[in-house]
Amino acid sequence: MRVIATTTDPVRLSFLRVLLADAGIDTLVLDAHISAIEGGIGAFPRRLAVATEDERRARAVLTEAGEETA
Fold it and tell me: Which superkingdom (predicted)?
């Protein structure tokens, strides 16, 4: 797995996941359950990861959409 984006914004995270899903790329959100510990204040970023073999294509999809990658 490769981390391609990091964000504290749940809306952006959802948007990135939809972009990649539309391109047929499966994603995994790391650190998603930290919100239970932090109380939902958004202090800890969530990491968006893809399979190693999908990394190049995922970065290209996000770059084409004007999104930064990690």
Answer: Bacteria
